[in-house]
Design goal:
- α7 (191-201) runs parallel beside α8 (229-246) and α9 (253-281) runs antiparallel to α10 (284-293).
- With 332 residues, the protein is an alpha/beta fold.
- β1 (8-14), α1 and β2 form a beta-alpha-beta unit.
- The N and C termini lie far apart (56 Å).
- The chain is built from twelve helices and ten strands.
- The model has no long low-confidence stretch (mean pLDDT 92).
- It has two domains: 8-218, Spore Coat Polysaccharide Biosynthesis Protein SpsA, Chain A, CATH 3.90.550.10; 229-328, no CATH class.
- Strands 1, 2, 3, 4, 5, 6, 7, 8, 9 and 10 form a ten-stranded mixed beta sheet that branches.
């Protein structure tokens, strides 16, 4: 028998998440806000995840479990969880992350106070298996809740960093239903970015709470780390095109300008990475041609080298907006 209608439905897709699942779900079940449900959707895992998920569901009636026989990707898995959700608020959560005990209570209280449809908190980016210091995601935000404009969101998701596109928001379910917004499989590992863009394009009252209540695990082999830089940038261009189509009818010139800046940054990063690759291969003719055709490239390479040396001296390589300013600061 199902419990009464929860206040928050936490949608958790998981795939081969056995080493982290118990800690992740435990951090949700220990929330000070008890009126919640966890919709745990296993996406055809081949490790011990299904067994652990069954144990979690058997131990706590708030965990609702779906076991998929095949792997369909996180966007479809999230959409399946969303379709089962009963709460007025949807919380997005990954099966290898954690959250602070009062996170959901504070997010709901803030969202209801300011009238948000979409509210995201700050994150601690924590690197697994190393001694690097954790870093916060939100960059230079004032204290207290504040609205997040779509143009600012686009500007704060540049290449070569973990940007605002990875935020894990609390979203009003009625808003998603009214506008038919879902996660888009064609966005691949950037479905969170495109989901946020489409929410804001549809008029979501979007807010930030710059307090680090979410703990994002950056680990080897994850979707964020397993692609090489050029493949990642090619993927970003693909998702950029999806965002451009989604925003084609947007009337705010600030949004169009931010979208153009984001494309220019991605293309500059691709050129930068191709040139570095040519240097490593000793293809000096190719490097010389690139420098002649694009005189600004030499300055970009020099800044990139200085930034890499500064990161090494600081002893940090957590790729956040604060630690990777090269393309963040690049003018469109």
């Amino acid at each position: 028998m199902l419990q009464r209608v929860p206040l928050v439905s936490v949608v958790v897709p998981c795939w081969n998440s056995a080493p982290w699942l118990a800690a992740a779900i435990g951090s949700v079940l220990r929330q000070t806000l008890g009126e919640l449900e966890v919709i745990l959707v296993d996406d055809g895992s081949s490790d011990a995840t299904p067994r652990l998920a069954r144990e979690l569901a058997a131990a706590d009636a708030r965990v609702r479990l779906v076991l998929r026989p095949d792997n369909r990707g996180s966007a479809r898995t999230r959409n399946e969880g969303l379709a089962l959700a009963r709460g007025p608020w949807i919380a997005v959560f990954d099966a290898d992350d954690r959250m602070e005990p009062d996170r959901l209570a504070r997010l709901v209280r803030t969202a209801e106070t300011v009238g948000a449809d979409w509210l995201a908190d700050d994150q601690w980016i924590e690197v697994e298996g190393g001694e690097r210091a954790r870093a916060r995601l939100l960059f230079d935000e004032p204290a207290g809740p504040r609205p997040l404009a779509l143009a600012d969101f686009l500007d704060r998701d540049p290449p070569e960093t973990i940007g605002y596109g990875t935020l894990k928001p609390l979203v009003r379910r009625a808003f998603l239903e009214r506008h038919g917004i879902r996660w888009r499989p064609e966005a691949g590992r950037s479905e969170d970015f495109l989901f946020a863009v489409e929410c804001m394009e549809a008029g979501a009252a979007s807010w930030l709470l710059p307090e680090p209540l979410y703990r994002y695990r950056l680990r080897p082999g994850s979707q964020v780390t397993r692609l090489d830089p050029l493949a990642t940038l090619d993927h970003m261009l693909h998702v950029q095109a999806l965002a451009e189509r989604a925003l084609a009818a947007h009337r705010d010139p600030a949004v169009a300008a931010a979208l153009a800046r984001r494309r220019a940054r991605i293309e500059a990063a691709r050129l930068y990475r191709r040139t570095l690759d040519a240097v490593r291969r000793g293809a000096l003719v190719e490097v010389g041609r690139a420098l002649r055709e694009r005189p600004r490239l030499s300055g970009l390479l020099a800044r990139g080298l200085a930034e890499a040396l500064a990161r090494r001296l600081r002893g940090t390589d957590v790729p956040t907006l604060a630690n990777r300013p090269l393309f963040r600061d690049l003018a469109g």
